[in-house]
Amino acid sequence: MAAAGPAPSVLVLAVLSSVAGLFIPPTLTSACLLADETAPPERRVQAGVRVNTAVNAGDSGGGAVAGALTDRLPLPTCFALTAVAAAVVALARSSGRRGGAVRAGASSV
């Protein structure tokens, strides 16, 4: 996404945004599968609903923040902030997963 900020044309911006969008379905699928695998059988529907709610809340909150930022900052800066936020989440997630696989039923869902 950081590369999309200084895109020289709308076509390049569309291509870069499309490439970034390719990562959304696998992420959502992984989140749903992880919730399903880690929740006890009697709580799997609830776990899926919580994942869906979290995605919708994050999307809504992110949209509100993005709208406020694009009114105040140059567009390339907004794209760079998006890339930084994604990198921080990825680093935080990878550092928390060094202990091995998630045990079934170990979730707080």
Automatic annotation (TrEMBL):
The keyword Cytoplasm does not apply. Keywords: Membrane, Transmembrane, Transmembrane helix. The chain crosses the membrane at residues 73-92. This is Arabinose efflux permease.
